[in-house]
Amino acid sequence: MSTEPRLLEVRQKVLKQNDLLARSLRKRFREAGVYVISLVSSPGSGKTAFLEKALTLLRSRYAVAALVGDLATENDAARLARSQAPVKQITTGTICHLDAEMVERALEGWNLDELDFLFIENVGNLVCPSSYDLGEDLRLVLMSVTEGEDKPLKYPTIFNTADVAVITKMDIARAVEFDLEAANKSIQSVRPGMRVFEASAKTGEGVEEFLHFLESRRNFANQDFIGEPVAQCRG
Amino acid sequence: MSTEPRLLEVRQKVLKQNDLLARSLRKRFREAGVYVISLVSSPGSGKTAFLEKALTLLRSRYAVAALVGDLATENDAARLARSQAPVKQITTGTICHLDAEMVERALEGWNLDELDFLFIENVGNLVCPSSYDLGEDLRLVLMSVTEGEDKPLKYPTIFNTADVAVITKMDIARAVEFDLEAANKSIQSVRPGMRVFEASAKTGEGVEEFLHFLESRRNFANQDFIGEPVAQCRG
User: Fold this and answer.
1) Which H or E element spans position B16?
2) Does the beta-carbon distance from B10 to A7 stay under 8 Å?
3) pLDDT tens for each residue of B108-134
4) Contact residues on chain A for B148, CB-CB shorter than 8 A
5) Cβ A121 vs Cβ A67: under 8 Å
6) CB pairs A-B closer than 8 Å
7) Cβ–Cβ contacts within 10 Å for residue A45, how many?
8) Does A99 touch chain B (CB under 8 A)?
9) Among A36, A226, A11, residue whose Cα is nearest residue A134
10) Is any Cβ of chain A less than 8 angstroms from the Cβ of B122?
11) Which chain A residues contact residue B44 at CB under 8 A?
12) Cα separation values, A188 from A105, A171, A210, Å
């Protein structure tokens, strides 16, 4: 299509502006000692259920908060607020991803110094969020056992730009004849060496294991911090 | 963001060009007497499984074919080809939707006069495909019982631009504690009066009912055709 190159060019400028803002956000997060995790997945993969469980468990030992993006409704913020953690909804209208500016705006009024962990749940989408850095320390991609084991092959970029994967809804894996080996093979072929957790927000399976991983990552990041942000390991 | 208005402007030009091409495609489809159905949904909602079942059942009494879009892989075309119907894969790279030009290009070499039904499976995405007319007669939005009953509220545009809805994976509705009434309420609040089918590609439940609906729609469209396309009922 003849107009595509122009569209791409404008989009690249938007991305560049986003990257600069994300870099300053990352610096703020690091200086405040808050470890930031973003969540991306297809709509309906169970991001919110997983996050609600994680917030509920973590808040007994850490100061945690969450931002949650959606095109419309505040449903997810209401669900996450049941964890008793501070939560803000970002509604994006027709935009299929969060960007650094939306995150920065949503953080107004929050004292980052008081937080240990901040979670950012992106809009449910396997394409758009991949290009937008939000200043996070760790990007988590979730896929549920109902989505088909080849999702990573079909949406390689979102798996490539993520740091770890969580397979959700493991409690119904048998009912939907989920093939764990095939799913792992798909993930590893797109992002070799990626750490994969298996979890169920309903039974709690795997959630604590994931949280221990986050704690050790946070400790490592804070140890390592000597005024400059650590290099991002994103590919 | 300061660059957003420019980005929107360029995007509107792309859309306008797409609309012109979609209009000419719609005319070609109508003249050839082929009824065209597009499928949109979140990744993993079961578009391909539903379509495979529909193609397999329909091809005993009609000439059917399918185009299937994905960012990468030809996995879905391979699955659909098991129905013995002609199938072509459209790989979009990093683009999160099909457009009319991709459809036109994929149709090269096919004689539309020989077809009764053409299905176009869009890239799994609840945002991007909504703005792109593909020249289809009917746009079908699918949501699975595992996705959460409020998906239509969170992604109103894709439900608004669709003509009918199919709730998929009904065979596991009980296992995932799906609330059919809540889902229907969400759909109707976004798109009042929308016809909703409940189906399972695995058990076959609801698929024949949907196909009868398509047959009657096709008969109606062909009866109505006197050289000009009928008005689109899309909202």
Assistant:
1) helix B4-32
2) yes
3) 999 999 999 999 999 999 999 999 999
4) 43-44
5) yes
6) 137
7) 31
8) yes
9) A36
10) no
11) 42, 44-45, 143-144, 146-148, 151
12) 36, 23, 19
* Cβ–Cβ below 8 Å for B44 and A11: no
User: pLDDT tens digits, chain A, 235 residues: what are they?
Assistant: 444 566 677 777 777 899 999 999 999 999 999 999 999 999 999 999 999 999 999 999 999 999 999 999 999 999 999 999 999 999 999 899 999 999 999 999 999 999 999 999 999 999 999 999 999 999 999 999 999 999 999 999 999 999 999 999 999 999 999 999 999 999 999 999 999 999 999 999 999 999 999 999 999 888 765 544 434 433 3
CB contact under 8 A, B144 and A146: yes
The rounded distance, in Å, linking the Cα atoms of A29 and A31 is 6
Asked if A44's CB is within 8 angstroms of B148's CB, the reply is yes
> Of B70, B99, B144, which is closest to A154 when you measure between CB atoms?
B70
Which residue in the set B18, B101, B125 is minimally distant from A125, CB to CB? B125
Amino acid at B177: E
ipTM for the complex shown: 0.75
Closest among B69, B37, B57 to B166, alpha carbons compared: B37
